[in-house]
Please model this.
Amino acid sequence: MTILTRRNFIKTAAAASTLPLMGRAAFADEPLKVGYIYLGPVGDFGWTWAHEKGRKAMVDHFGGKVVADYVENVAEDQSATPVIKDLAAQGHKLIFTTSFGYMDQTLEVAKAYPDAKFEHCTGYKKADNVGVYNNRFHEGRAVQGTIAGHMSKTGVIGYLGSFKVPEVVMGVNSFALSAQAVNPKIKVKLVMIDSWFDPAKEAAAAETLANLGCDVIATHTDSPAALQVCEKKKIYGFGQGADMSRFAPHAHLTAIEDIWGPYYISRAQAMLDGKWASDDAWWGMKEGAVVMAPYNKSLPAPVVAAAKKIVDGYMTGTYDVFTGPIADQAGADKVAKGEKMPLDKLAGIDWYVKGVES
Model:
């Protein structure tokens, strides 16, 4: 298959021969060594930052039983292969590769190191020693779309995306469907920037969306740059991966917070217990992996109540934004009335719903 790569804003900071391994402590009783590969810098205040918080939570939970190293700013191309390989060669028995574009590289290294276990985030290819894991981010997008549907005065809202991969397509569609449940006439303008972390591109895309009449913008890239544009333009926006309200206190309505710590703890425990097995994990609100950041105090009480209703629906299993009828951009029926799209279908979704203008 063709790999969709994330083009780094910051170039890879590690050569295979000299990995800048961070956060290591020495223990005499041979602790479990866990490695992480990060796309961006740990200070991006978004995707990578959330994974780094999860890594730290895992280390704190186990004390001296687990040590964990990371390499940041690793590009999603073949240059990732020697970085992953070097972690395995240095004795890391559990390695997390935390971005979609590391999928084939992870599988390649896993073949060469059958005694190590690997977990790839947001991918779909598995092996005996390779599992995949993801969060149901689209649950949070449904909350954001509900808020956007209530708060938009123009009936035009925006979505800043990275690549057309299932994770992003799910987010766009969830955002659109939930907003349309509030206002059936609402339109979603979509701009993709072919990057996950590029503050200059993110800001420029937000400017474009604002110029197209969008008065609420959801971000699906990793820096707070787009939110800072929203703040300047006096329009609304949502953070990605973490609470970004410090960068846009008036514009930031809420954010999807990715809580990775419990998952990382569970997988390290499985290694310690000798019970690790390749899995396909999809955690969401019910598992505490997808959490909404505090709502902006400017949100009217009825809007907050509507948002909380969506959260409660996911927590109890009584709500699913991907319940038909759902049509695609051309108006063709994709999901029949009353039917729900199963996760295996969502995992490969490559079409946008009606009302999305890309």
